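Per-record layout

source: Ilumatobacter coccineus
name: Endonuclease/exonuclease/phosphatase domain-containing protein
length: 266
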Amino acid sequence: MSLRVMTWNLWWHFGPWEQRRPLIVDEIRSVDPDVLCLQEVWSDETTDDAARLAEALGMHMVRSDPVFWNGQSFGNAILSRWPLTRIADDPLPNVDGEPGHRRVVAARVDTPFGPWPFAATHLDYPADASATRQVQMRFVMEQAATWRGEPLDDFPVVIGADMNAVPDSDEIRMATGLRPGVDGIAFGDAWEQAGDGSTGATWLRDNPYSRDSAWPNRRLDYLLVSWPRPKPTGNPIRCWTVGSRSADDPLWPSDHLAVVADLVTP
């Protein structure tokens, strides 16, 4: 048996967001994930896109506490077909270690296989902010070590994230154990283990919302599974991207593609 997890940056309320919303719902329905990690979730004082999505999809939901400016917020959420309980909602540090406005939210999902921890986060975006992302990645890893229980017996932590970093960056190499990180925990990259053979890019120049970007095609979004873990639970057996359209289509669901993976269950 397997569990399907999906992560997606929804691009807040940028661009033609009213036209994008039904495309997002339809794409998620077509994937039918068991657990969905979201970034750039919009809300204001009365409306919450995460709650709206959960209602449309018939899923349970937790989200990061809104951080408002000009009456609107920018956050992360976790949706699940099963009940879930929020276990953490923490600000990510800036490069100086002080709390920033970005956050990581974690939840324990009551899957049929047992309680399983998931998290959603979104690291800082500037191309020259690797030092900040490294501080944030270390913080996420330290927190994840407290969410997973007994590493060799309990379920691994699954993180869905827009890391704003490519696979050979120092911050991703830290997460995957290729450079010094946090003792006792590292993460497997679902795409690296079970990608569908494409580049896995989630930021595409074909996308009309990123066509004028200075960045080339890049893989910025990840599904990560903590290690060590009880074999083979959490091993990805398939990983793919969704959310693309033809290059001449002016309406895409988001400026990022989503990443989906099927993970081995006990």
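summary: The longest helix spans residues 130-147. Residues 2-264 form a domain with the Deoxyribonuclease I; Chain A fold (CATH 3.60.10.10).
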